[in-house]
């Protein structure tokens, strides 16, 4: 299992680094949007809540352009049947999940410093800010992985993915925005309950997806 999982993950990274389609689109969108927002604000003083909303909107839509590509590519290149025949569904899901987590972590690591630099804002609770970004990224990646598998089976794949992802993401985005705002504005130390909720939410999504992925992936 570990050997097959490693081979699937290695294949995904080799293809991505060869084409760089998902990475280029996501990173270009993240950089251009962050710069555009900073220029549009023109040095205006924004509240921590607004900063948090803008930051997570940029992170969310930057990821949407690339996270579904890992499954859609298999359908477009007609390799999904070959992959299903030579690898267990659980291995396929775990390899795609790990790939999306790493990709979205890279997107978050790119957007966050750029936003903080251009908007001239610095979190008061830096460690909590980093933990929030990490937990929020994990939750987003876990949701988009299973939704990407569902959307890959549909015909209008690209547009459908963002449409169905956003309603499911609302609890994650709302809590991530609130936690980020608490990290930026200072005052009393942020509570850990919301952070634990993001981790528990990710655990539930990953567990359910792991158990149901076989039925989603093998449905024709």
Low-confidence stretches: none
- Extended strand count: 0
* Main sheet summary: none
Separation of the first and last Cα atoms: 25 Å
Mean pLDDT: 81
Number of domains: 1
The fraction of residues assigned to DSSP E strands is: under 5%
Put the structure in a nutshell:
With 220 residues, the protein is an all-alpha fold.
Structural description of this entry:
The protein is mainly alpha-helical and 220 residues long. Helices cover 84% and strands 0% of the residues. It contains nine helices and no strands. The protein has helices spanning 2-19, 21-41, 48-67, 69-76, 80-86, 89-118, 126-152, 157-185, 193-217. The radius of gyration is 18 Å and the shape is globular.
Describe the SSE topology.
Blueprint: H1 2-19, H2 21-41, H3 48-67, H4 69-76, H5 80-86, H6 89-118, H7 126-152, H8 157-185, H9 193-217
């Amino acid at each position: 299992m570990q050997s097959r999982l490693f081979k699937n993950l290695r294949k995904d990274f080799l293809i991505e680094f060869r084409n760089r389609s998902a990475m280029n689109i996501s990173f270009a969108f993240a950089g251009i949007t962050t710069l555009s927002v900073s220029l549009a604000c023109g040095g205006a003083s924004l509240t921590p809540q607004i900063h948090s909303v803008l930051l997570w909107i940029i992170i969310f839509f930057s990821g949407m352009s690339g996270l579904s590509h890992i499954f859609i590519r298999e359908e477009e290149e007609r390799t999904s049947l070959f992959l299903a025949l030579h690898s267990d569904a659980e291995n396929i899901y775990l390899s795609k999940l790990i790939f999306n987590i790493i990709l979205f972590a890279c997107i978050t690591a790119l957007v966050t410093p750029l936003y903080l630099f251009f908007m001239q804002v610095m979190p008061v609770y830096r460690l909590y800010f980093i933990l929030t970004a990490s937990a929020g990224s994990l939750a987003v990646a876990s949701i988009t992985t299973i939704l990407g598998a569902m959307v890959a089976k549909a015909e209008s794949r690209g547009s459908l993915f963002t449409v169905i992802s956003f309603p499911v993401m609302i609890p994650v985005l709302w809590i991530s925005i609130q936690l980020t705002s608490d990290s930026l504005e200072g005052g009393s130390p942020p509570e850990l309950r919301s952070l634990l909720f993001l981790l528990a939410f990710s655990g539930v999504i990953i567990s359910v997806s792991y158990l149901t992925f076989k039925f989603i992936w093998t449905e024709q």
